[in-house]
Amino acid sequence: MNRRAFIVAFGAASWLVSVVQGVAQEKVPRIGFLGHVAPSSGQRDGFQQGLRELGYLEGQTILIEWRNTLGYDELRPLAAELVQIAPDVIVTSSTPAARAALDATKTIPVVFAAVGDPIATGLVANLARPEGNGTGVSLLSTELGVKRLDLLRQLAPAAHRVAYLVALANPSEAVRIKSVQAAARTLGIKLDIYNANNAEEIESALRAIPWKSTDGVLIGSDPIFQAEGAKISEAVRAARVPAVFPWPDFHQYRVLMSYGPDLRKAASRAAYYVDKILRGAKPSDLPIEQISQVDLVIDLRVARELGVKVPPELLFRADRVIK
User: Fold this and answer.
1) Is pLDDT of 22 > 80?
2) Residues with Cβ < 8 Å from 121, sequence gap 6 or more?
């Protein structure tokens, strides 16, 4: 090889090494996911599916640090842990998780995969322009609580006493309960509140409910109730009392009725916000989206088991009837 050819070949080789190193060193986006969700909720799967639809492959073109807990005390330490990792975005599922992340950082963008009323719970001041570093998907939870009570009354028109199982440590639940109480007074229903924030308190609440004098049950939307869904459903069926649950996922435990959005779809939609932010958008410029699709699901097998006659108008309105 002559000297000129050697110099050209050496230069090309150096350029190739530089390009390869540049690709290898190109930054892969890192996401922190702070979950306050039941293992069976499917929100993790929904978020991953949303990312795949946008062209992101976990472990290849995007990295995700997963953190999840059903306890409230663990959320702040986990949020602080994610902040130390310095991800490009923190995704949160549930209002308590969103609150913990926003308290932990004012600079890292925070995307809500599923929160209750973000204004009433103090997460943001404005839906159209959230300001701050948080934005994402809301579930319209305040309105849903009132609607579930209305559905229960349609299911049991003679109901005068209803047990409401809630987790008041969840800011979203604490906000929702006020509107449900007001609706109950309007309907002439005595609403008995049972506050339960963990598995032990749920078990105590189920023992404390005077089932023989209770005409119906409402189940709150905190993730702990889904985690304990089998136990709650079994107690309700044993008491032969109609109940309305918050999410379609509860039907894996053979419940009579549920009314709420699909949490998987909400989590999938959060991927859209992540993609926008990774491309340079600021959270304050991305309006909060309110999930509009809410599903009414009725299981007629459970209705027959409980001896409950479901009104034809409810069956007509149902998005899905399990026979």
Assistant:
1) no
2) 95, 99, 115, 171, 172, 175
